[in-house]
Amino acid sequence: MKDIIILNQVDSTNDYAKEHYMKLESETVIVAHEQIKGRGRSNHIWNSPTGNLYMTILFKNIKRNSIFNYLMNTSISIVRLLDNYNIDASIKYPNDIIVKNKKIAGILMETKGDEILDYLIIGIGININQLDFKELREKATSIYIEKHKEYNTIGVMKDFISILEVQKELYKEYIMKSYVLGKRIHYSNESFIVTGINKDGKLLLKGSCELEIHMNEISLEELYE
Ligand code: BTN
Fold it and tell me: What percent of the chain has pLDDT over 70?
């Protein structure tokens, strides 16, 4: 991740990212100690007192069809983060992270743009030190409730970012170790060079035209003659 902006109080870190995205670099992280207009999915309010983690990661110029990949990486990284604290969490499709049937974290993704997005913002709320969820007490939990100890929110954010970075590194490593990149292949009676593999697992080809093909569309003989 590039820059980390830490705010004491903000309406919503997602709204902050939307307002400022033009002058922020892709992969900027915005964190707030408190939100006064925190938003959840389906126009729900995301109650945001101090003590929990409220953060947004801004991505620019990425492909719309890679959104699910970003969602998967984020969800898995939250589960791994919690696992490091000995909390067994699972992913409730599409955007909730749950522990013993109670929600511990939520993700709110918002986009602007068409095929290549002006922005993808990933808002993440993780309940850390909250003890009383009032009318939601049957439905929500926090790290404190599970582990009976307080955590530093910025420390948790940093742990989360480093896990997310590892996820990204896995993709980079996959690309670096790829045997097919730069190879010439035959596809539909034409010759192409493999120029990349995108995060959806599609092969990027360049010949008389540029193509993106799904792995099911190509046989091994065409790849490895
Ligand atoms: C949900 O489960 O409904 C999604 C909740 C997302 C909450 C986070 S907190 C940081 C970011 N800013 C917001 O206003 N919402 C997201």
Answer: 97
